[in-house]
C-alpha cells in the first residue's frame, strides 16, 4: 500500500504551486527524464508517443497542401550563418559551435543548427533558376539546438524536436498566402486535435522573427493564465533571397528574387497540452492525440473468466480502430486507476465478475470521472461515441476557461490592476510605438502576444500605455 499511495501523493496541487505541479506531472506520467547533458531532456516512451501522434497528424495535413519533406545537414558554416544580418544577430547568443573535427581545429567553425533558414537558402540558390522551378514547398522534421540559460521540460530545452517548413515562391502574394495558410493549419490542428483554443494574429515588430518581414502566431492560454506561443509562420519577403542571391528568370526572361516563408511547431505543444488540460491527478489527454485511448482494467482478476473477458474487450476495441491496452498486472485496481489517471488515458473500462454476469462493463471518463454502464454488445459504438464527446467537451471547457480569462484594459491604471491581479490575456489598444511595449515589459514582465486577425474590435481610441491615439488592438500577457 505504501508504494501505491506514493504515486498520487507525490503530485503538488495546481493551486498550491503550478510550476511544481507541471514538473511533477511530466515526471510522474513518465513523459521525460533528465539527462546528464544539462538542459537536454530524454523523451520517454509515453512522451515520445505523443510527439509521434502530433507528427503523424501534422505531416498528413502538410502533405494535403503540397508540402514535401527533405533533410538538411546538422551543421551550418559560420560564413553562411552570417549572410543575413538580422538573422545572425537574433540567434548568435544561443548558438553552439563545433570547432574541431577529431583532433584538428576546423578552418571554419560550424554551428549546430538553431534553425535552418540559411541552409535552405543556400540550397534554393542552387536549385532555383527558372519560374518553372517554383514554388518549392519543403519541410524537415529534425532537432535544433539553442543554448538557453534556463530550461524547462518541453517548454525550453537546449535541444528540441520540431518541424521547419521553408518555401520559395515567385510572387509576394503567393508567399503571403502560404504564410497565412500554414498559420491556419496550425490553429486548426491545435483546436481540432489538441482541443486547445488559440488566438491567431500577427507579432509586433519587436516580437517578430529575426529576419522576417512579418511573423504570424497562434497564442494559447495555459491553465495558470500564462500565454504560450504555440506555432509561428513567417513571411520573409525577398530579404533572404537578396542576402543569398536566390533569383529566377520569369516568363519575360527577367531576373527576379524569390519570396520566402518559414513556419514551425515544436515539442512545446506537449507542454501546452499538459498545462491546458491537466488536473491534480495528472495528465488529461485529448483522445485524438492520446497514444492509448482506452485502458481495460479487470476487477477481481483472479476470478474465473475475468482476464479472458478483459482481453476479449481489448481485442474488439482494437479491431474497431481504437488505441487500447489492458492492465493485467498484479497491481491492485486502485493503483491501476491512479496510474491510468496520471497518464491521462481518456477512458478506462472496468470489468469484473458481476459485470460479466450482467452482460455489461463500466466506462469511466478521465476528464470528468463520470461513469457509464454499457451493455457489452454496444461496446464499440459507445466507446467511439464517448471518445468524440470527450474530445469536444475538452475543447469547450478549455475555450470557456480561456474566454473567462480575457480582460479589457482602457488605460494604464486598468492595465496595472488587471496584470497584477488577474492572470490571463489583456486586450488593450496600442499606438504602434515600441517604447510602450518596452515599458509594459519593464513594469510587469508582460509582452505583446499578438495583434489578432479575427478580433479587431476598437475597445478604445487611445494607447493603453501612453494615451496617444491608437488603432491596433493587442493581446498582452505574461508568457512561457
Ligand atoms: Zn503607446
TrEMBL record:
Q: What is this protein called?
A: Proline--tRNA ligase
The GO biological-process annotations, alphabetized, read as: prolyl-tRNA aminoacylation
Q: What class of enzyme is it?
A: ligase
Query: Main subcellular localization, coarse class?
Result: cytoplasm
- The residues covered by the Aminoacyl-transfer RNA synthetases class-II family profile domain are 43-286
Q: Provide the species name.
A: Roseburia zhanii
Subcellular location, record wording: Cytoplasm
List the gene name: proS
Q: Which reaction does it catalyse?
A: tRNA(Pro) + L-proline + ATP = L-prolyl-tRNA(Pro) + AMP + diphosphate
Amino acid at each position: 500500500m505504501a508504494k501505491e499511495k506514493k504515486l498520487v501523493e507525490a503530485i503538488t496541487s495546481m493551486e498550491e504551486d503550478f510550476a511544481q505541479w507541471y514538473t511533477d506531472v511530466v515526471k510522474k506520467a513518465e513523459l521525460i527524464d533528465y539527462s546528464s547533458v544539462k538542459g537536454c531532456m530524454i523523451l520517454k516512451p509515453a512522451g515520445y508517443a505523443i510527439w509521434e501522434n502530433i507528427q503523424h497528424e501534422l505531416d498528413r495535413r502538410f502533405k494535403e497542401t503540397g508540402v514535401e519533406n527533405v533533410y538538411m545537414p546538422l551543421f551550418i558554416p559560420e560564413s553562411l550563418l552570417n549572410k543575413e544580418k538580422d538573422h545572425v544577430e537574433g540567434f548568435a547568443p544561443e548558438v553552439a559551435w563545433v570547432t574541431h573535427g577529431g583532433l584538428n581545429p576546423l578552418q571554419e567553425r560550424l554551428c549546430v543548427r538553431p534553425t535552418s533558414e540559411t541552409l535552405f537558402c543556400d540550397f534554393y540558390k542552387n536549385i532555383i533558376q527558372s519560374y518553372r522551378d517554383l514554388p518549392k514547398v519543403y519541410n524537415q522534421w529534425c532537432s535544433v539546438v539553442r543554448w538557453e540559460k534556463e530550461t524547462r521540460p518541453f517548454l525550453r530545452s537546449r535541444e528540441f524536436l520540431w518541424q521547419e517548413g521553408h518555401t520559395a515562391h515567385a510572387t509576394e502574394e503567393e508567399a503571403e498566402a502560404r504564410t497565412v495558410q500554414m498559420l491556419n493549419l496550425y490553429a486548426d490542428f491545435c483546436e481540432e486535435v489538441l482541443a486547445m483554443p488559440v488566438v491567431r494574429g500577427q507579432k509586433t515588430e519587436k516580437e517578430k522573427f529575426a529576419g522576417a518581414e512579418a511573423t504570424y502566431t497562434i497564442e494559447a492560454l495555459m491553465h495558470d493564465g500564462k500565454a504560450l506561443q504555440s506555432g509561428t509562420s513567417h513571411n520573409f519577403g525577398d530579404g533572404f533571397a537578396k542576402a543569398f542571391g536566390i533569383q529566377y528568370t520569369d516568363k519575360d526572361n527577367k531576373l527576379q528574387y524569390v519570396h520566402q516563408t518559414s513556419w514551425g511547431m515544436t515539442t512545446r505543444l506537449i507542454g501546452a497540452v499538459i498545462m491546458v488540460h491537466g488536473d491534480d491527478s495528472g495528465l488529461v489527454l485529448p483522445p485524438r492525440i492520446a497514444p492509448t485511448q482506452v485502458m481495460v482494467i479487470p476487477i477481481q482478476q483472479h476470478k474465473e473468466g475475468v482476464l479472458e473477458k478483459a482481453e476479449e474487450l481489448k481485442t474488439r476495441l482494437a479491431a474497431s480502430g481504437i488505441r487500447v491496452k489492458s492492465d493485467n498486472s498484479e497491481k491492485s485496481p486502485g493503483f491501476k486507476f491512479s496510474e491510468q489517471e496520471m497518464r491521462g488515458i481518456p477512458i478506462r473500462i472496468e470489468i469484473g465478475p458481476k459485470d460479466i454476469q450482467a452482460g455489461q462493463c463500466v466506462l469511466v471518463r478521465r476528464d470528468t470521472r463520470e461513469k457509464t454502464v454499457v451493455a457489452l454488445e454496444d461496446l464499440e459504438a459507445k466507446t467511439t461515441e464517448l471518445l468524440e464527446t470527450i474530445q469536444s467537451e475538452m475543447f469547450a471547457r478549455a475555450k470557456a476557461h480561456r474566454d473567462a480569462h480575457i480582460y479589457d484594459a482602457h488605460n494604464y491604471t486598468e492595465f496595472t490592476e488587471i496584470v497584477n491581479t488577474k492572470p490571463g490575456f489583456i486586450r488593450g489598444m496600442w499606438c504602434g510605438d515600441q517604447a510602450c511595449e518596452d515599458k509594459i515589459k519593464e513594469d510587469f514582465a508582460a509582452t505583446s502576444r499578438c495583434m489578432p486577425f479575427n478580433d479587431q474590435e476598437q475597445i478604445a481610441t487611445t494607447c493603453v500605455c501612453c494615451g496617444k491615439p491608437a488603432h491596433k488592438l493587442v493581446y498582452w500577457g505574461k508568457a512561457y
